[in-house]
Automatic annotation (TrEMBL):
It comes from Krasilnikovia cinnamomea. InterPro entries: GAF-like_dom_sf (IPR029016), OmpR/PhoB-type_DNA-bd (IPR001867). GO terms for biological process: phosphorelay signal transduction system; regulation of DNA-templated transcription. Residues 243-308 form the OmpR/PhoB-type domain. This is OmpR/PhoB-type domain-containing protein.
């Protein structure tokens, strides 16, 4: 079985593949939502996300962090301490004149971009520079942005890029996680020519990411039995406990979120109502909890009532905690997206809305251009009319981003059937739907 994360299978002709995928890409951007094989499913899904974010195939990634802001931000970033590891393992590629080594944060913002002057000049023409944002919503399908979106190492080859100016390049990237929480900290990327589309480059970035995580683990050793849950922006939660990362199924993810929300414990009947309001069958709940206990271990999951026996941290609890301390920027940085966005369980939906509305209200109240920009550029905030209006209000006349913001407001106003821009009450109502 071929590896879906590799761009080319053994023996493939790169030139033929570029042409083949390029034709499918042109069909896609022309309106064919289901381009023919041989486009990899991970690429097609990324194209759809890029198109859904209304990224212009001829566009360029925006530069979000200026020199002074960038310097301060990356000096304080957790990945700063592993920069020597990146240079040690990948420095040869950055020095060979053919490749770029880049590190981005969890939002896809490039922190370090290294290579020879000639290759960096070529990268600068597509805004692949420190401070630029390369998540899918801002730059289309690309290795670091897509690796963060799917939380997996992968390659993006030539015409697989959604942005036409980037299609001369090939890249391989791997996400890097916080060992204590499992939350993505960013990604390591190698960018170069077509020859990069081989199994060795993918293995190299993956090994580099694992080495970085191992080093971070030694710098911040977890307390015995410490556990953490990552559930924001993903349909299946990840539990990190005793040095292991366990990906849970959807139902077990919902149960764990509900148990974290009610540390005092929950009966089977209560959990049934939270999960299955139309048929809260306690027998079904007990069976699911029994399976969850086998995964977590009896030392972590207790019963009568069902509860977590030890303290478990969770990213969706971190956001409100930071907001209570007035750390709005930190809370937004910790917010990777809606809580279990695919879940329709009433108990999970309530927590999801509460966390998002708390954060959203804090960002609006702060009226900070950078925070508002981060929100509207996110996948969950791209259609939030009120936030776009607030963001536009912070842009002075003549600002490069202002025409784009005004255009987006006009588009959303028409899409929601409003008579004129600026209807905050109506947009707020739309947001809550």
């Amino acid at each position: 079985m071929s590896n879906p994360w590799l761009a080319l299978h053994a023996g493939a002709d790169p030139a033929a593949r570029i042409t083949e995928v390029g034709r499918a890409y042109e069909r896609f951007v022309a309106g064919d939502a289901n381009p023919p094989l041989p486009v990899r499913p991970v690429v097609v899904e990324s194209w759809r996300r890029s198109a859904g974010a209304r990224f212009d195939p001829e566009g360029t990634a925006p530069i979000e962090l200026g020199d002074d802001e960038l310097e301060a931000y990356r000096a304080a970033h957790p990945l700063a301490c592993v920069l020597p590891i990146f240079r040690d393992l990948l420095g040869g590629l950055a020095d060979d004149g053919d490749h770029i080594v880049a590190v981005c944060d969890a939002h896809g913002r490039l922190l370090w971009v290294e290579g020879t002057p000639a290759v960096l000049d070529g990268a600068a023409r597509m805004n692949f520079v420190p401070g630029a944002r390369w998540d899918e919503a801002s730059a289309g399908t690309n290795a670091p942005g897509t690796a963060l979106a799917v939380d997996h190492p992968l390659q993006i080859f030539a015409t697989e890029h959604f942005c036409r100016p980037v299609q001369d390049w090939t890249c391989a990237a791997a996400p890097i996680h916080d060992p204590a929480t499992g939350r993505p900290l960013g990604a390591i990327d190698v960018t170069g020519g077509d020859r990069l589309a081989n199994p060795h480059s993918l293995a190299l970035v993956r090994a580099t990411a694992l080495a970085a995580e191992a080093y971070l683990r030694t710098q911040r050793p977890a307390a015995p039995g410490a556990a953490a849950v990552t559930a924001l922006g993903r349909d299946e939660a990840v539990l990190t406990v005793a040095g292991r990362r366990i990906r849970l199924g959807r139902r077990h993810s919902e149960l764990l979120v509900l148990l974290l929300t009610h540390p005092q414990g929950r009966t089977g009947e209560q959990l049934g109502i939270d999960l299955y309001p139309d048929d809260p069958n306690p027998v079904t709940i007990r069976a699911e909890l029994s399976r969850l206990r086998r995964i977590l271990g009896p030392e972590l999951l207790g019963s009568r009532p069902y509860r977590l026996r030890s303290d478990v941290d969770a990213d969706f609890r971190t956001v409100p905690r930071l907001l209570e301390q007035g750390l709005v920027a930190d809370a937004l940085a910790a917010y990777a997206g809606p809580l279990l966005p695919g879940s329709e369980a009433p108990g999970v939906v309530r927590v999801r809305r509460l966390v998002e509305e708390q954060l959203r209200a804090a960002v609006l109240a702060r009226a900070d251009r950078s925070l508002l920009q981060t929100w509207v550029r996110s996948p969950w905030g791209a259609d939030d009319l009120q936030m776009w209006e607030a963001y536009a209000a912070t842009l002075p006349v003549g600002a490069p981003a202002r025409p784009w913001a005004v255009s987006r407001i006009a588009h959303l106003t028409a899409e929601y059937g409003l008579r004129a821009p600026g209807s905050a009450a109506t947009s707020m109502q739309r947001h809550r739907l």
